[in-house]
């Protein structure tokens, strides 16, 4: 069944905006949520009839229940929610900045829990719906470069797995997507030349989300990260990955 | 009073073509019902009133608003002396006949299934197979208790103007909480049924005319797959209450529909078999087989229990599931006697030409009545079930719109309980400026804040531009 009404949290640019555009051209009414009013408006311009924008900072979790209800009312229902919002600030090899870390935990994980809990409760009541969380391959291991980004994505993956175990018997799909690096504003400070484009990633996500479960976007990623996940910790420590 | 946290439920119509999610309350008393009205008003929410959800289309759903499931308000008392039933809006037609028949009474009007609630059937002002002689159910209500949007409660009788407006207004003006209905006295729970094979539309109309004066009930099945010379062929049934006193057959146990076919196949499984045949080819075969069987059958006069004759739709439990996953819609039109003879064959022809022949066609005789949004007409109705799929929905809608135009050109009417395809312009033509303005005037008077709403009202813009 094609979704008819969707929320994309973090839909003002990058992967979220691509997903919104693709869903909208397929006849789905989409509500996109983001921090920047200007970026949201720009994303809406691609299909103003089908895409509506809501300004919100996912770190303000106390605002989520009311906004979620308001958006569902505006959409006239909800079949799909995709949590894309995420931050990955530059972190130096010797840096331990709690303020940056808190920002990542709040955006990548707490915001995700706040939004997806609302959707989970609703979908549980009606016995239908799809929840998609955009995690990361970075959550598969604790790596030296991004300790808290890794931890936030690992927490997200575990939370989504638990949701899946709770809700799948009630006909609700919970999908974890673990993309590798994607050329989006979030990775603008990195070399994007070998990264997957947001458009390709969005196409793959929409294809894979119909199947439920946990997905890497490329078969090679699946294989590489299967190996990486099984490298014993003392060896992994020496690899400097 | 603290209301429980509303549960969001996905609700659909009987044809499950459209659905929507609503915050659902299930009040158990008049006080709780009023409390939900107050809660909705204070929180700026609309309300859709819902009984058993047996309206075919979108009359009892409303996305993201409050749905009040009235099924728990199901009191039912019968006065054995007067034959007057005092029935709560959540009691079903089944609850009513099961309480009344052992006392020698039968509901004056019943639909083709016993599962709709009293609130629902009065909101829609249903008719039965006896519509030609006794009219709609609203004509048999002596008094009703109504809860208005402002939480005021009033008892209304046929002398009150509001009575003729609230009955038939699809739950969009006020909530009928309880009704006193005059029941029909019966000596037995059986009917003398007569079946007549009709080979053409002329024979169909002639059968209704010939039996109108004497029959208590009349209904005819039409094989919609018959074309040209075979168009209109089908099987007409008339029935009369048996005069012989049979108190034993007034017992509920003697009225229950059999749970197995030929004593072997559980009826609960039959829909799975029907699903396999649920295609143009399969139904064409079933229609042909039914017609041939009725032609060769020698059983033209027989006795049947009231329940078996009245509630044909309950004969195969869950039959509507055979239309899954897309569901089905029913197109029912009510056409004056003078134009029905020309229009009905044309409607069938339009379907055949579009490759969208309906799967079940039922014809009935009606009379007009005084309710505001009434479908009653001195003429005939034709009810047709169409299978909906993702690939045929667009062309089916276009066909229904074309049929709407044809019905309106013929001076016909529609029935909100069955509707899925009326457009704003169709509603305007059906009701006319005067009736529509009167309905909107009542809406403004009884429910100025538009508390009561439904997907049907929004689709058709029944309240005008809000």
Please provide a written account of the structure:
The complex is a heterodimer of chains A (241) and B (466). Chain A has 241 residues and is of the alpha/beta class. Helix content of chain A is 47%, strand content 17%. Chain A contains eight helices and nine strands. In chain A, the strands form two sheets. A seven-stranded parallel beta sheet of chain A has the order 3-2-1-4-5-6-9, sandwiched between helices. Chain A has a two-stranded parallel ribbon with strand order 7-8. In chain A, helix 4 packs parallel to helix 5. Chain B has 13 helices and 21 strands. Chain B has an eight-stranded antiparallel beta sheet. A five-stranded antiparallel beta sheet of chain B has the order 5-6-10-8-9, covered by helices on one side. A four-stranded mixed beta sheet of chain B has the order 1-2-4-3, with helices on one face. The two termini of chain B are 32 Å apart. Chain B has helices at 30-42, 93-100, 118-124, 131-134, 163-166, 201-211, 270-277, 280-296, 306-310, 337-354, 393-409, 424-446, 455-460; strands at 7-12, 19-25, 47-50, 66-69, 76-79, 84-88, 105-106, 141-147, 153-156, 175-182, 184-185, 190-198, 217-222, 234-241, 260-261, 265-266, 301-305, 328-336, 360-365, 379-387, 413-414. The model of chain B has no long low-confidence stretch (mean pLDDT 93). Chain B is of the alpha+beta class and 466 residues long. Helix content of chain B is 30%, strand content 24%. In chain B, strand 1 and strand 2 (19-25) form a beta hairpin. The interface between A and B is small, with 10 and 9 residues.
């Amino acid at each position: 069944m094609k979704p008819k009404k969707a929320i994309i949290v973090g839909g003002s640019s990058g992967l979220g905006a691509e997903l919104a555009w693709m869903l909208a051209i397929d006849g789905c009414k989409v509500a996109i949520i983001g921090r920047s009013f200007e970026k949201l408006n720009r994303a809406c311009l691609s299909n103003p009839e089908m895409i509506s924008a809501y300004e919100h900072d996912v770190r303000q979790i106390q605002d989520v229940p009311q906004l979620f209800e308001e958006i569902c009312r505006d959409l006239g229902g909800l079949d799909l929610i995709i949590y894309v919002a995420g931050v990955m600030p530059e972190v130096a090899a010797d840096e331990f900045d709690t303020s940056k870390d808190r920002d990542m935990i709040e955006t990548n994980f707490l915001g995700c829990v706040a939004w997806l809990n609302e959707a989970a409760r609703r979908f549980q009541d009606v016995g239908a719906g799809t929840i998609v969380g955009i995690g990361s391959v970075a959550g598969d291991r604790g790596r030296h470069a991004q300790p808290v980004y890794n931890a936030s994505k690992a927490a997200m993956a575990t939370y989504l797995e638990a949701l899946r175990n709770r809700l799948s018997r009630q006909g609700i799909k919970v999908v974890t997507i673990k993309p590798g690096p994607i050329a989006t504003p979030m990775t603008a400070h990195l070399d994007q030349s070998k990264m997957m484009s947001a458009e390709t990633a969005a196409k793959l996500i929409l294809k894979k989300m119909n199947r439920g479960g946990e997905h890497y976007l490329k078969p090679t990623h699946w294989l590489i990260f299967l190996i990486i996940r099984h490298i014993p910790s003392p060896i992994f420590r020496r690899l400097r990955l | 009073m603290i209301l429980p946290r509303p549960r969001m439920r996905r609700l659909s119509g009987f044809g499950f073509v459209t659905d929507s999610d609503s915050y659902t309350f299930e009040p158990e008393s008049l006080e709780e019902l009023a409390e939900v009205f107050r809660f909705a008003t204070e929180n700026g929410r609309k309300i859709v009133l819902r009984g058993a959800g047996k309206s075919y289309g979108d009359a009892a759903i409303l996305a993201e608003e409050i749905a009040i499931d009235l099924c728990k308000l199901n009191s039912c008392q019968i006065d054995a002396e007067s034959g007057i039933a005092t029935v709560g809006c959540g009691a079903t037609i089944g609850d009513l006949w099961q309480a009344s028949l052992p006392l020698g009474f039968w509901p004056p009007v019943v639909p083709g299934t016993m599962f709709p609630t009293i609130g629902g059937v009065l909101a829609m002002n249903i008719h039965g197979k006896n519509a030609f002689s006794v009219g709609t159910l609203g004509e048999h209500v002596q008094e009703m208790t109504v809860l208005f949007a402002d939480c005021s409660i009033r008892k209304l009788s046929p002398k009150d103007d509001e009575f003729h407006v609230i009955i038939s207004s699809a739950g969009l003006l006020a909530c009928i909480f309880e009704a006193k209905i005059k029941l029909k006295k019966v000596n037995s729970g059986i009917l003398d049924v007569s079946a007549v094979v009709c080979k053409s539309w002329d024979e169909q109309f002639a059968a209704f005319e010939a039996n109108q004066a004497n029959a208590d009930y009349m209904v005819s099945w039409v094989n919609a797959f018959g074309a040209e010379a075979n168009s209109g062929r089908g099987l007409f049934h008339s029935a009369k209450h048996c005069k012989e006193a049979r108190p034993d057959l007034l017992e509920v146990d003697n009225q229950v529909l059999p749970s197995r076919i030929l004593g072997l196949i559980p009826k609960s499984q039959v829909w799975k078999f029907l699903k396999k045949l649920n295609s143009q080819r399969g139904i064409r075969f079933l229609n042909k087989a039914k017609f041939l069987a009725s032609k060769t059958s020698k059983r033209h006069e027989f006795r049947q229990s009231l329940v078996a004759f009245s509630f044909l739709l309950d004969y195969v439990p869950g039959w509507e599931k055979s239309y899954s996953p897309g569901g089905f819609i029913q197109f029912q039109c009510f056409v004056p006697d003078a134009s029905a003879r020309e229009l009905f064959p044309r409607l069938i022809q339009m379907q055949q030409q579009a490759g969208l022949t309906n799967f079940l066609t039922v014809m009935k005789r009606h009379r007009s009545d005084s309710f505001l949004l009434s479908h009653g007409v001195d003429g005939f109705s034709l009810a047709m079930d169409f299978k909906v799929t993702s690939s045929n929905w667009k062309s089916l809608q276009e066909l229904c719109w074309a049929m709407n135009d044809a019905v309106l050109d013929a001076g016909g009417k529609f029935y909100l309980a069955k509707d899925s395809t009326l457009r704003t312009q169709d509603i305007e033509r059906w009701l006319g400026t005067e009736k529509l303005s009167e309905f909107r005037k009542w809406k403004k008077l009884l429910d100025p804040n538009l508390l009561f709403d439904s997907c049907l009202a929004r689709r058709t813009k029944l309240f005008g531009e809000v």
